[in-house]
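Help!! Second protein's tokens look totally different from the first
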Amino acid sequence: MMRLPWFEHRAPKTVAEAARILAAEGPGAMLIAGGTDLLPNMKRRQMAPKLLVSLRNIPSMKGKTASAGGLTLGAGLTLTEVLADPRTPAALRQAARQVATVHLRNMGTLGGNLCLDTRCNYYNQNYEWRKAIDFCLKKDGAICWVATASKRCVAMSSTDCAPALIALGASARLVSPAGEREIPVDDLFKNDGIDYLTRRPDEILTELRIPDRTAPGSSARSTYWKLRRRGAFDFPVLGVAAAVVMKNDIVEKARIALGAVASRPFLVDKAGEFLEGKRLDDAAIAEVVKITAARAKPMDNADLDLYWRKEVTAEFVSYALRELRGDDMREVRFRVARQMI
């Protein structure tokens, strides 16, 4: 049995109080919300904070507000609460629904999913396994076992909700004792398997803001497609999120984001720019598939072949855009969900 290391626990009632504790305690303190990622990592001794600062008792982090400008979601909302709200855009609902299992979605939070640790076959093992092969660059070692010549860790991003929020053009609010700032969700991440967040250690991710990008006469559509090793539940080895604003059958705005094919989720700018002003016909979709697949550069850090994962990126982008066009993709979704079991 893997046991948790000893730690101190505090449960502040406000964001300001939590931020003060983080600033005072320094690197020995870590935030915990649902704990579905952090606690297993602590059991495997990948993380050993001396103090956990709980965000579960902060009401302001669990709000939901809809306005003419869009939708604001508290980072402390559970994934179950996010997907149950009919105001949540389709891409984010689909992403939240495909995270883990019902039990874990009842505990895991929106903010926690965005801040998930990066993953790798050589890192996500117990302490004894990692010690036996010699520790990796991400924790206690000096070499990346995926890319031995690399000077940085190439562990992959494992969040489902981030690609969806990036495609939706969402922004993140970060609060610290020094003040607060709002940044695009895309800017929350860095392409580094170890130092993968731009959030400072004393900052708290408090809410996500999803803008309403539609104009009179137009409509917004979005979707998220996930490839995972097990069909029942698992982390992504590929995530594709797409969002469009349509007027009649013309694309006014488009954003496509990829996850789990790098150490960060990212927006494929050129794909969205290409679609604007066009119909979602087969020719346009084929060109966007080429543009997007060229940006996917998975590494050999999962138990599925990296070349196959790159090829599948093209297929999943096609599925997403065909679904946004209005094609009936239910049978394909069912097949994708079942084929990896």
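Here's the second one for comparison:
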Amino acid sequence: MQDEVRVLCEELIMTGAYVARAGLVAGGSGNISVKASLADSGRTAQDMIIITGRGSQLANLSFSDLAITLADGSIGRAELQELSAQPSSELPMHRAVYDARPDVAAIIHTHSPQATAAAACHLTIPAFLDELTFMIGGHIATSEYAPPGSVELGANIVKALGDRQAALIANHGAIAVGSTLSESMKVAVVCEEAARVYAIARGLGGPMSIPESALERQKAGFRRRKGLI
């Protein structure tokens, strides 16, 4: 089991470095988690979450910057002793998403500039690009405001996500989800790029909508790929 945990931690550390290089976080902002499914642990997949620790910097993560949390909220030291951090204060948000979305096994919370600017304006980014439906499943909504780290914030984000892969967090940042860390990372990049292009398009008079028939086909294709229909 420890070997499986170690592999997930190494992947999480590499993801943090990529997210930082891509400019999606700065300093100590943002957090990442992955839901572990370990057959010999005696726990279900939802019962073990590896998450970045409080105050950690995604650009320079080490094993000591990570934490394992269990269903009862305790820290799973036995799984890997090197994981000595206290979990991110945004753990309730991560738990809420995992509980609501069985298809999600990895979450990246970013403070990327364009997406955060849209979140500060409480905008909804419409599905005006093909890539938004292919990668995210439709539009990107902004959640209702709630304090960072609160249970209310998690509930609001679950509502804003719906069955899609990304949402904006009001006055705060963005969240990208997926079945793997790699998928979540791609979604985070698409979310930031979509916010950037949307800002430019608004300055040019506003983006044109994708024809409704094409949009519905794309959404249906996304839902089939995700096993939602």
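Reply: Different proteins will give different token patterns, so don't panic. Residues 9 and 142 are 30 Å apart (CA to CA).
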